[in-house]
Design brief:
Radius of gyration: 17 Å
Largest sheet: 2 strands, parallel
Structural class: alpha+beta
Helix content: 40-55%
Strand order of the largest sheet: 1-2
Order of helices and strands: EHEHEEH
Strand content: 15-25%
Number of strands: 4
Length: 119
């Protein structure tokens, strides 16, 4: 495939069926492509591993200013779809990681309830 500067690459949940280690490698490759060819890359994901890897490699490659992270949610009262850029809010990306990790936290709480904790 021949890329031209400014081309747009759209990927819908590219991490599906990938082990977390491979998600990190995939993210590294995408960031490298963006940096080398100045691509605009739109990725949808539910993986905190993949999202964190994109953020990490963007930072280590000095292209954080190119990264925008959006949260898409539904206003339950109004039934409207909300799109919020959380890239530059104080805890926006951290809150998004917490949101994506919440199901695992619930499982941990269930096990803690059954077996107790050492804390």
């Amino acid at each position: 495939m021949l890329w031209k500067q400014g081309d747009i690459l759209i990927l819908d949940e590219p991490e599906i069926n990938l082990h977390p280690e491979w998600q990190v490698e995939y993210a590294k490759t995408l960031v490298s492509l963006q940096k080398e060819f100045r691509l605009k890359i739109l990725v949808t994901t539910h993986s905190p591993y993949f999202m964190r890897a994109i953020e990490c490699f963007s930072d280590t490659n000095n292209i954080m200013e190119q990264l925008n992270v959006y949260r898409v949610s539904k206003d339950k009262e109004k039934g409207e779809t909300l799109i919020e850029n959380v890239s530059y809010t104080e805890f926006g990306i951290t809150d998004l990681y917490d949101e994506l990790s919440a199901p695992l936290e619930k499982l941990e709480l269930l096990l803690d309830k059954k077996y107790g904790t050492d804390e």
